[in-house]
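Students often ask why inverse folding is considered easier than folding. One informal answer: many sequences map to the same fold, so there is more than one right answer. In these notes we will look at a single instance of the problem. The structure comes first.
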């Protein structure tokens, strides 16, 4: 694997998250007049009954920017043409594609020759919920995709300004979707499609870093990009026959890999991938995520009582050390039978290590916790022959327990939390 950083880490470390106003009256960055002529916005539409959702976005595209509308359904193109003519919008290019490969083939096959004439490209497609209970989440996702890509004429100008201001920025995507039924934003973006994406990386011989533990940062084919950043992808010469739509329900469906593939192609070409969103959407997302994080962490605290990133870092740093200590000793006790002691027990049991019991300074009346005996320190015999893991996380308590153990002849102990990160 190459020594460069993963695209997910780069976005975080460089803070490649851009929030811009979609207010037409907001102060806009001056951009050279020719930039609009170097730009094309390509839209793939499939669902005839939802076309009205997308008209306001398409109507807001500056007339100086070329627009191409693609569909695999003649009736959709017909209705689209009718709307554009009624709106007085000319210069639109219409393409009827084969009904294979959906939005991905619309970009890579139908749009391949088109983008050769442009420097900046935006690609969008429509979306529809598959389940009635997902309707609210899907509506927010559509706002995410379309509003954060072409929210207004002024906002589009902001995006082009970002490409001009940051020469190494090659791709701008909407943020990972949030919603009651979605887990993508929380780092689960692969959806079992890592293997097909990794195969594409090998197939294209990309100089990039791809790892399963690092989630993708493009979820779908809605994005802005510099043509040069994805040139290697378009040079491949894709055909409709490359996409077997019978495999739509399989995580190895080619399109699912391509949806995550863009940042790695851009990295190979020397470009970064960032995320862009409107101020209005950023406010909604922050509000939603704070609410969701509170609900998730409060419930998870029962099983994993680690509630800060500093504590999580300390836990991860010491986990291996504690497990190795337990493996080296036959009779291991956990000092502390509370939440953290039980967390340590769970961690050891996952490694098929069964401690002998819990030790406490003073019993609260419980003689058994999680099927392990609980013994007061002064009642435990032959302490000098036992191994002890001090699980409490307060520094003062750790020191006091260590002193009590040594006073009773036990020097074979380890502290689970080397540092007090808990405040």
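Output (designed amino acids):
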């Amino acid at each position: 694997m190459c020594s460069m950083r993963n695209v997910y880490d780069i976005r975080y470390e460089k803070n490649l998250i851009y929030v811009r106003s979609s207010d037409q009256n907001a102060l806009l960055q001056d951009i050279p007049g020719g930039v609009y002529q170097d730009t094309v916005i390509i839209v793939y539409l499939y669902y005839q009954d939802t076309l009205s959702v997308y008209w306001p976005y398409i109507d807001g595209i500056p007339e100086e920017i070329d627009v191409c509308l693609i569909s695999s359904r003649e009736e959709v193109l017909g209705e689209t043409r009718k709307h554009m003519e009624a709106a007085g919008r000319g210069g639109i290019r219409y393409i009827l594609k084969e009904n294979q490969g959906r939005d991905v083939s619309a970009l890579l096959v139908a749009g391949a020759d088109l983008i050769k004439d442009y420097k900046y490209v935006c690609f969008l497609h429509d979306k529809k919920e598959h389940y009635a209970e997902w309707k609210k989440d899907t509506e927010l996702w559509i706002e995410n995709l379309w509003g954060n890509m072409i929210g207004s004429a002024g906002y589009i100008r902001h995006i082009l300004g970002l490409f001009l201001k940051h020469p190494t920025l090659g791709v701008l995507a909407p943020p990972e979707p949030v919603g009651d039924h979605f887990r993508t934003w929380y780092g689960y973006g692969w959806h079992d499609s890592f293997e097909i994406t990794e195969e594409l990386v090998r197939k294209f011989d990309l100089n990039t870093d791809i790892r399963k533990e690092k989630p993708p940062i493009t979820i779908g084919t809605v994005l802005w990009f510099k043509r040069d950043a994805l040139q290697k992808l378009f040079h491949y010469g894709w055909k409709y026959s490359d996409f077997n739509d019978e495999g739509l329900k399989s995580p190895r469906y080619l399109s699912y890999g391509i949806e995550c593939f863009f940042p790695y192609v851009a990295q190979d070409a020397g470009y970064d991938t960032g995320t862009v969103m409107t101020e209005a959407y950023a406010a909604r997302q922050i509000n939603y995520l704070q609410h969701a994080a509170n609900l998730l962490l409060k419930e998870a605290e029962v099983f994993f009582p680690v509630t800060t990133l500093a504590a999580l870092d300390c836990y991860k740093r010491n986990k291996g050390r504690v497990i190795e200590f337990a493996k080296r000793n036959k009779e291991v006790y956990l000092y502390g039978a509370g939440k953290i002691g039980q967390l340590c027990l769970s961690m050891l049991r996952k490694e098929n290590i069964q401690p002998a019991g819990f030790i406490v300074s003073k019993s609260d009346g419980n003689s058994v916790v999680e099927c392990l005996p609980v013994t007061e320190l002064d009642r435990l015999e032959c302490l000098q022959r036992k191994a002890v893991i001090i699980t409490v996380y307060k520094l003062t308590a750790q020191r006091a327990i260590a002193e009590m153990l040594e006073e009773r002849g036990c020097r074979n102990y380890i502290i689970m939390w080397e540092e007090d990160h808990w405040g």
